[in-house]
């Protein structure tokens, strides 16, 4: 399975179905199952936020009964979180605000920091520091050939 993730915002705690465990489980499952890019399946084009499933499949994947899935799905459709399009042997579920929920263009709320790079660096030992300091002094005492020529010309002038 490809490594991927979804965004789950803390404002979901204030969502009207958050206190209904079955609806919450089904909605999060829909977010996880939804395609993140356009794909094709048996000649059907699926857009980002859509996936193909069935009620028995959703029941099996979420460990809910088919009846619980049907009720939770009706909750999500009633409040506009998802829509579904039924065919004879499958249904296409669409997460309506997929772009809002999973947008990569959404600004990051955290300030930019340069501290991470510092933490990723290995600790410098005293011996390494002394070697660095000595090499730095050697470099500064032997200037680049062009600089050396300029220095010699200035000294001779």
SSE blueprint:
Blueprint: H1 21-33, E1 39-41, E2 44-46, E3 50-53, H2 55-62, H3 66-78, E4 82-86, E5 91-95, H4 98-102, H5 115-120, H6 126-141, H7 145-156
Antiparallel strand pairs: 1-2, 3-5, 4-5
Helix pairs in contact: 1-3, 2-3
Written account of the structure:
By secondary structure, the protein is of the alpha+beta class. The protein folds into two domains: 12-102, Orthogonal Bundle (Arc Repressor Mutant, subunit A), CATH 1.10.10; 115-156, no CATH class. 46% of the residues lie in helices and 13% in strands. The strands form two sheets. It has a three-stranded antiparallel beta sheet. The chain has a two-stranded antiparallel sheet with strand order 1-2. Strand 1 and strand 2 (44-46) form a beta hairpin. Helix 1 (21-33) packs across helix 3 (66-78) and helix 2 packs across helix 3. The longest helix is centred in the C-terminal third of the chain and has 16 residues, at 126-141. The radius of gyration is 30 Å and the shape is elongated. The model has no long low-confidence stretch (mean pLDDT 79).
Q: What is the CATH C level class of the largest domain, in words?
A: Mainly Alpha
- Flag low-confidence runs: none
Gyration radius (Cα, Å) is 30 Å
Can you tell me the overall shape? elongated
Mean pLDDT: 79
**Largest beta sheet: what is the strand line-up?**
3-5-4
Helix content: 40-55%
- The total tally of domains equals 2
Task: Find the CATH topology of the largest domain.
Answer: Arc Repressor Mutant, subunit A
Topology order in helix (H) and strand (E) letters:
HEEEHHEEHHHH
Biggest sheet features: 3 strands, antiparallel
Oligomer: single chain
Strand content: 5-15%
Structural class: alpha+beta
What is the count of β-strands? 5
Helical region count?
A: 7
> If classified by CATH, what would the architecture of the largest domain be?
Orthogonal Bundle
Distance between the termini: 74 Å
What is the CATH superfamily label of the largest domain?
Winged helix-like DNA-binding domain superfamily/Winged helix DNA-binding domain
